[in-house]
Write a structure and sequence with these properties.
This protein has a domain at 708-862. By secondary structure, it is an alpha+beta fold. It has a 6-stranded mixed beta sheet with strand order 20-21-25-28-27-26. Strands 19-22-23-24 form a 4-stranded antiparallel beta sheet, with helices on both faces. The chain has 30 helices and 28 strands. Helix 7 runs parallel beside helix 10 and helix 19 (452-464) runs parallel beside helix 21 (507-521). The longest helix is centred in the middle third of the chain and has 27 residues, at 562-588. Bound molecules: 2-acetamido-2-deoxy-beta-D-glucopyranose (9 copies). The site of one 2-acetamido-2-deoxy-beta-D-glucopyranose has 2 residues, from loops. One 2-acetamido-2-deoxy-beta-D-glucopyranose is lined by residues 785-787.
C-alpha cells in the first residue's frame, strides 16, 4: 500500500498482470515463396484470386440483402431478415427507437446507393436512382412526408447517401459516371431534405433540436425536443457544408458551423465536451464523456471536415480534443469514459460504437496506437462472436464493501482487489456461476451487425497491408454467410448470451458493413487508386471535392436567406450579451482563476453540478501548439490516399502482428475476468491461433512479452497555463526523448515501480543492477513529507507514458527546471494552496532526476 496515493488522491491505476499465452509454432514457414501461391487458390494465401473470390462473395451478400429489400421491404424503410416482412415506421405509437430513423421514406434505398457505386454496379446504381426519381419526383420531392424524424440520422443516411451518389454520378473519373443522362436530381433531393431539417436550428441558442417534422416544423412534438447529444448537434457540418459547396448556398455551412463552434465553446477546462445537453437552454444532461455513442462523430467529423474542406481551424480543434482524450481517457487498450469536468473515471464499460476510433486514428497517422485499440474489438469477436453493444472491462460485483455504487470508483481499494484477483483469476471465476459472470461482463447484450470494427480493420489494412486484417475480414465474411444470413437478409445478434438473432436489418449493414468488407478485399477499387482526398462519411458514403469545386465555392457562393441571416445575427448578439454577463460575474468574484484547480487531480465528486460560470460560455479559442510524440508513423494524414500506399510494404509476406507484436494475447489474460465465452460458442476459437493461419503468416519470430509484475501509477498534474510539448529524436542516443519546455496545463504521467526480480511493462526481467548508480540524495533542501511507505533503496521509479504517449524503454522526459519552478511558484501562490509545497513531495537528486518522496524517477530530468 502506497501512502502517496491516498495522500494526493491521484487518479491512478495499477497495471494488471498480463501474460503469455501465444503458442508460437516452431516450424519456420515465414516468408512464402511467391511463386507457390500466385497461381493457386487456397484459404489464407490471400493471393489475388482468393481475394477476388471473397470480394465477389461479399457482393453476392449485398445483392441478396438488397434484392430482399426491394422485393419485400420496399417501399417501406427496411426488410425484416427473419420474418420476411417490411419493417415500417411505427404509425400508431410514438416509438422513438424506430421512428427516429424510419421516416417511411424508403430508407434502405437511399442508404444502399453508394454501395452499388463502390461495387461498380452501374446497372444497379441506375435502377435505384430511377426508383428514387419515381418515388420522389422533382416537382414534389419529399413534400408528402408527414414524419417526425431525427435530424442527425436523416442527415447521415439520406442527405449523405444522396450527396455521395451525386458525386459519383457527376464525376467522369468514376465507373458509374452518368454523364448527360443525369439531371442533378439527387442533389436537389438532398437540398430539399436539408431545407426540411434546417429549421431544427431555429432555436434560441442556434443549436439544433434532435427531431423535426419534415412537413411542418411547428408540428414537431415539443416533448421530443429537450435533449440532444453532442454528436447529433455537431455532425451535420460535414454533410451540410458539402451541400453548400455543391449548391453554392452558404446557409447550410453557416448555420451548422455556428452550432458546431458554439458547442466547442462549451468545452471544459480539460478541452472535453459533455455528451448530452438541452439545445434550448444549454443545460448539461450528463457529465460523462468518452469516444462512444453520443459523442463519437464529433471527433470523427472534426478531423474529416478539416481534411475534406481544408479547414485548419477544425484541424486545431481535432488536435486539441484528441490530445485531451489521450491525456484523460486513454487506458491502454481502449478509451475510458470520464467526467468531462474533472477527468474522473465514471464508467466500467465501453460501447461498441467506439470501435470506429482506430480507423480515425489511422486517418491521423497514429497507426501503432490504432493497431492496439483495434485488437480489443477482435477479442470481442473471438469471445462473444460479435461486438457487444456495451462491455464491462471490470465486472460489476455487488458486494457489501461497495454500498450504494454499482461501480467502485475508489481506485485504491479497487486495484488492490484486482491485484489479489489477478494473481489467481481461475479461483475467482470458479466461485461464480458462469452465465452470471458473463452477464456481469456485458451490460447491453446485442450486436446489430454494426460496421465499426470492420471499418477500422479496413483502414488498418490499407495502412499496413498486414494479412492479419484480411483474415479478420475473412472471419467476418464466414459468419455473415452462415450465422447471420437469414431468409430475407442479415440478422445481427439479439442476445449474445444465447446467440438468439435479431429480426432487423438496419440500413447501415448495406451502407457500411458490407461496403467496408468489400473494400477490404478489393485491392484495386477506384477509391484506392485516386489521389483525391476521399473521405468516408460516418455512414460510409465516400465524399470528395475537386479544386475546381473548392474554387468555385470561394468565388461564387452566396448567403441570402434572410430567415437564417436574421437568426444567426440574433444568436450572435445574444452571445455577446451573455459573454458580458459572464465577464461581469467573474470580475465581481474574488477568484484565483479556475485553472488553479490543484497540482493533482483531486477527487471531485463526479455527480457535482457545475455552476454557470464553469460552463465557459464563449471562451476564446486559444491557439496553441502541439506536436505529437507517440511514434514514428505519426504523420498527420492530410494530403491524399496515397499515403496509405506509401506505408511500408515489407509486411506483405508475413503478418507483422503475428510475428513481432508482443502484446497480441495480453487482453486475453488481462481481461480474463470479463472476456467469457457463452456456452454455444465454446468450440469457436480465435483465428490468431488457428494453425494454418499462424503457420502461414507468422515468420516464427512471434513472441509475447512476459507478464508484467511491476506496479504502475498515474500522476495527473494541473499546472497553470496551456499545454505545450515537443519531441526530439536524439540520433546519438537513438532514442526519442521528450522535451517539455514548460510543464503546464494538464499532464498525465504513468510511472512504474522498478525492483529487482520484477518484470517491467516492457517485458524486461529486472536485475539487481536496476538500483546501481541510483542516487537517493536530495538537493532541493525542503523537508519531505515523510508519511510515505516508500522504502528508500529497494526500488526506483520510471515514467512509461506521458499524456497517453507510450515512451520507449530508454526514453527520457526532459523538463526545464526554471519553467517547473515558475509553474510551482505560480501554483503555490494561489490563495487556496498556501500550505502546499511541490518540493515536499517531489525533489531533485544530484543526477538532476526528479524524485518522488525521495525515490528517483530515473528518466525524468530537470535541466
Ligand atoms: C515473385 O518474386 C520475384 C523475386 O523473388 C519477383 O521478381 C516477382 O515479381 C514476384 N512475383 C510476384 C507476382 O510478386
Ligand atoms: C408500435 O409501438 C407499439 C408500442 O410500443 C407496439 O406495440 C407496436 O407493435 C409497434 N408497431 C410497429 C409497427 O412497430
Ligand atoms: C408510408 O409509405 C407508404 C409507401 O410509400 C405509403 O403507402 C403510406 O401512405 C405511408 N404512410 C404514411 C402514414 O405516410
Ligand atoms: C400528419 O400526422 C399527424 C399525426 O402524426 C396528423 O395529426 C396530421 O393530420 C397529419 N397531417 C397530414 C397533412 O397528413
Ligand atoms: C488549403 O489551405 C491552405 C492554406 O490554408 C492553402 O495553401 C491550400 O492551397 C489549400 N488547399 C486547397 C486544395 O485548397
Ligand atoms: C440568392 O442568390 C442566388 C445567387 O445569386 C440567387 O440565385 C437567388 O435567387 C437568391 N435568393 C434570394 C432569396 O435572394
Ligand atoms: C537506431 O535504431 C535502429 C532500429 O531502431 C537501428 O537500425 C540503427 O542502427 C540504430 N542506430 C544507432 C546509431 O544505433
Ligand atoms: C516527519 O516525521 C517527523 C518524525 O519522525 C515528524 O516530526 C515530522 O512532523 C514529519 N513531517 C511531516 C511533514 O509529516
Ligand atoms: C536500452 O539501453 C540499454 C543499454 O543502455 C540497451 O542494452 C537496450 O538494448 C536498450 N533498449 C532499447 C529498446 O533500445
Amino acid at each position: 500500500m502506497l501512502c502517496i496515493l491516498l495522500l494526493f488522491s491521484l487518479l491512478w491505476c495499477s497495471i494488471l498482470n498480463v501474460g503469455v499465452v501465444a503458442n508460437s509454432k516452431d516450424d519456420d514457414n515465414g516468408d512464402l515463396d511467391n511463386t507457390t501461391n500466385t497461381n493457386k487458390f487456397y484459404t489464407y494465401s490471400f493471393n489475388r484470386y482468393e481475394l477476388d473470390q471473397y470480394r465477389l462473395e461479399t457482393k453476392e451478400l449485398f445483392d441478396f440483402a438488397l434484392d430482399n429489400y426491394l422485393n419485400i421491404g420496399y417501399p417501406f424503410d427496411e426488410v425484416k431478415p427473419l420474418s420476411c416482412v417490411p419493417k415500417t415506421r411505427n404509425f400508431t405509437h410514438n416509438d422513438l427507437i424506430t421512428n427516429d430513423v424510419l421516416g417511411n421514406f424508403t430508407l434502405t434505398l437511399f442508404d444502399s446507393l453508394t454501395t452499388c457505386a463502390v461495387m461498380n454496379d452501374k446497372k444497379r446504381f441506375v435502377e435505384l436512382i430511377a426508383l428514387i426519381t419515381l418515388n420522389y419526383p422533382q416537382d414534389t420531392k419529399f413534400n408528402h412526408l408527414n414524419s417526425t424524424v431525427q435530424v442527425f440520422e436523416t442527415t447521415i443516411r439520406i442527405i449523405g447517401g444522396l450527396l455521395s451518389s451525386h458525386l459519383y454520378a457527376t464525376d467522369p473519373t468514376k465507373k458509374v459516371y452518368l454523364a448527360d443522362s443525369y439531371d442533378n436530381s439527387l442533389l436537389s433531393l438532398a437540398q430539399d431534405m436539408a431545407d426540411r431539417l434546417l429549421p431544427a436550428y431555429l432555436t434560441d441558442t442556434g443549436l439544433p433540436v434532435a427531431r423535426i417534422n419534415l412537413q411542418d416544423p411547428s408540428k414537431t412534438n415539443p416533448d421530443l425536443l429537450q435533449e440532444n447529444n453532442i454528436a447529433a448537434i455537431m455532425s451535420p457540418i460535414f454533410e451540410f457544408t458539402l451541400l453548400s459547396y455543391l449548391t453554392l448556398d452558404q446557409k447550410y455551412e453557416k448555420v451548422t458551423r455556428y452550432a458546431y463552434d458554439k458547442i466547442w465553446s462549451l468545452r471544459s477546462q480539460l478541452d472535453l465536451l459533455p455528451m448530452s445537453i438541452n439545445p434550448n437552454d444549454l443545460k448539461t444532461y450528463s457529465f460523462i464523456t468518452g469516444i462512444g455513442a453520443s459523442i463519437d462523430s464529433f471527433y470523427e467529423y472534426t478531423l474529416k471536415s478539416a481534411i475534406l474542406f481544408n479547414d485548419s481551424s477544425l484541424y486545431k480543434i481535432w488536435l486539441k480534443s484528441y490530445n485531451a482524450l489521450k491525456i484523460f481517457c486513454k487506458n491502454d487498450w481502449f478509451f475510458v469514459n470520464i467526467n468531462y469536468i474533472n477527468g474522473q473515471l465514471v464508467s466500467n464499460w465501453i460501447d461498441s460504437l467506439s470501435a470506429f476510433f482506430p480507423g480515425l486514428q489511422v486517418l491521423n497517422g497514429d497507426i501503432s496506437d490504432a493497431t492496439f485499440k483495434n485488437l480489443i474489438n477482435l477479442k470481442f469477436w473471438d469471445y462473444f462472436g460479435g461486438i457487444p453493444e456495451r462491455w464491462n472491462f471490470q465486472r460489476i460485483i455487488n458486494d457489501n464493501s461497495n454500498k450504494g455504487s454499482k461501480f467502485n470508483t475508489n481506485q485504491n481499494t479497487n486495484t488492490n482487489n484486482n491485484n489479489d484477483k489477478q494473481t489467481n483469476p481461475q479461483n475467482f471465476a470458479s466461485n461464480l456461476d458462469k452465465l452470471q459472470q458473463l452477464k456481469d461482463s456485458i451490460s447491453l447484450e446485442w450486436y446489430p451487425l454494426r460496421p465499426e470494427f470492420i471499418e477500422s480493420t479496413y483502414f488498418l489494412y490499407r495502412a499496413t497491408k498486414d494479412p492479419f486484417y484480411l483474415n479478420i475480414g475473412y472471419q467476418i465474411l464466414q459468419r455473415l454467410k452462415t450465422i447471420f444470413k437469414g431468409e430475407c437478409g442479415f440478422a445481427g445478434i439479439q442476445n449474445i448470451f444465447t446467440g438468439q438473432l435479431q429480426d432487423r436489418m438496419e440500413t447501415f449493414i448495406l451502407s457500411e458493413t458490407l461496403k467496408y468488407l468489400y473494400l477490404l478485399f478489393d485491392e484495386h477499387n477506384e477509391l484506392h487508386q485516386l489521389s483525391d482526398n476521399i473521405i468516408f462519411s460516418t455512414e460510409a458514403h465516400p465524399m470528395w471535392l475537386s479544386y475546381k469545386q473548392i474554387n468555385n465555392y470561394k468565388k461564387n457562393s452566396f448567403f441570402n436567406d434572410s430567415n437564417f441571416i436574421q437568426h444567426l445575427n440574433y444568436c450572435k448578439l445574444k452571445d455577446e450579451k451573455d459573454a458580458k454577463i459572464q465577464r461581469d460575474k467573474k470580475n465581481s468574484q474574488n477568484t484565483h482563476n479556475n485553472f488553479l484547480k490543484g497540482l493533482f487531480n483531486r477527487n471531485h465528486d463526479y455527480k457535482e453540478i457545475p455552476s454557470q460560470n464553469e460552463n465557459h460560455f464563449n471562451k476564446q479559442l486559444i491557439e496553441s501548439q502541439y506536436c505529437f510524440v507517440s511514434d514514428n508513423n505519426n504523420k498527420p494524414f492530410i494530403q491524399n490516399n496515397n499515403y496509405y500506399e506509401k506505408q511500408s510494404r515489407s509486411s506483405l509476406l508475413h503478418s507483422n502482428l503475428l510475428s513481432t507484436f508482443n502484446r497480441l494475447f495480453e487482453p486475453d489474460i488481462r481481461y480474463s475476468d470479463t472476456l467469457i465465452k457463452p456456452d454455444y460458442l465454446k468450440d469457436y476459437s480465435p483465428f490468431e491461433l488457428a494453425e494454418p493461419f499462424y503457420t502461414q503468416w507468422s515468420n516464427s519470430n512471434g513472441f509475447s512479452k512476459a507478464m508484467q509484475t511491476t506496479e504502475s501509477y498515474e500522476l495527473l498534474f494541473n499546472f497553470p497555463g496551456e499545454y505545450y510539448i515537443h519531441s526530439v529524436h536524439n540520433t546519438n542516443l537513438n532514442m526519442t526523448d521528450l522535451y517539455c519546455g514548460d510543464f503546464t496545463g494538464h499532464r498525465k504521467i504513468r510511472i512504474e515501480k522498478l525492483a529487482p526480480g520484477k518484470i517491467s511493462s516492457y517485458g524486461e526481467i529486472l536485475g539487481d543492477d536496476i538500483l546501481d548508480n541510483t542516487n537517493y540524495d536530495d538537493i532541493s533542501n525542503v523537508e519531505k513529507d515523510n508519511s510515505s511507505n516508500f522504502e528508500s533503496g529497494s526500488f526506483v521509479l520510471r515514467a512509461t507514458i506521458l499524456d497517453g504517449n507510450i515512451l520507449g524503454s530508454n526514453s527520457s522526459i526532459i523538463l526545464n527546471k526554471d519553467a517547473i519552478m515558475k509553474s510551482v511558484t505560480a501554483y503555490s501562490e494561489s490563495a487556496s494552496q498556501k500550505d502546499f509545497n511541490f518540493f515536499k513531495i517531489f525533489g531533485l537528486n544530484s543526477d538532476n532526476q526528479l524524485t518522488l518522496q525521495g525515490i528517483p524517477i530515473i528518466n525524468i530530468f530537470l535541466v
